[in-house]
Protein 1
Amino acid sequence: MAKCSVCDKGAHFGNAVSHSHRRSNKMWKSNVKSVRVNVNGATKKMYVCTSCIRSGKVERA
């Protein structure tokens, strides 16, 4: 699973609890996109989460 290169956000793990309170494993995946980013004047492909893209932490190419 990909992680955000800016904030290090990745997948979260826990339990899915049913109505009868039986537990099974659950995985919440973060919304990470492969984006072309300007880094020191050069373009580079990075994995960035959508919250970092919306907040303006990265400059898209």
Protein 2
Amino acid sequence: MAAVLTALAVACAIGAWRLTSARWPWRAPRSAILLWQSLGVTWGLATVGAMLAYALEPYGEGVVYGLHAFADSAISFGMGLGLIQPYDLPRVAALVAGLTLLAVLVAILLGAGAQTLRARRRHRALLSLIARDDPGVPGVRVVDHPGAAAYCLPGLRSEVVVSAGTLSLLHPDELRAVLAHETAHVRERHDLVLLPFAALRWALPWLRVVRDAHSSVALLVEMAADDRARRYCSPRRLATALLRFGTAGAVPAPNGALGAAGEQVMARVNRLIKPGAELPRRFRYSLVTFSVLLSASAPLLWIYPG
């Protein structure tokens, strides 16, 4: 079992590395985002599971049931009823490493989530003091700042924010396109998609594959929001708005927010102006099915008894 989980973890790492340089995900960003999520979840569970499976192999009951058997053995050892297993040093080291890695991954994710929530809470408090409503853009908060800025603060009380500089910079159609883009971020909760990748990048900034994975998913999130905005406006209007943001020197979105400028603006502009053919529906359905099966593989191997 340990060998199978190790092979699964290596396959996920290789798949993520190859996916960072692929361009076909631009033709189906939502399906590609799902694949990225399944690769990340499976890699984490398979890596931890490989260590635990090796450590708990003497019990012959797999990972989940092996942990239960280990707990029973530890309790018996504490009561003086026998030896605790696994009792050889390599297996004890693997058990400690696996549990530690699991705790670290969970702690990183929870820590990043807590930090993001704090940043959003502070920014909402600031907006309550400096932002205003504008009848020309109902439902949008306006900040009196000359720079170009447009972003959303996702959450239970989601807000879309634009600057006064944005209102003077963009034509009405372009502004409508930008607001549709930000609304897509809010509705599809792209912040939750990015959170685990941002957390890994914060924890492992020296790993190129982690940095590239975060950049790839961030770009796909922006492209998915662009696709949603295209339903309500002309793609060229959105592309023009992005170019105006770029030439005006757009203000970066605050921590915890998703901005309109986003990642790799020129790649998005080219995609909007010269959209390639979408991936065939059959391929997209196959990709979704594969992602679901991949996500289920590691948990199934965890509970496999032996």
Protein 3
Amino acid sequence: MNKIVAFMAGNVYKVLVKPGDQVEAGQDVAILESMKMEIPVTISSGGTVKEVKVSEGDFVDEGDLLLELD
């Protein structure tokens, strides 16, 4: 199981996947917003989204769990 974590602090602007979705390496799975900039969260390996741990509007710190892949 792969865990996708936030690489910076910010607000979760958009969650682009849901549980059960098939994702590929290089795909954006969420967009974080910080200082009025939108920064995509891109995954490095593919799989199936097992669980999304955040909702749009949540604040996350660097290292917080965003989602899990199988």
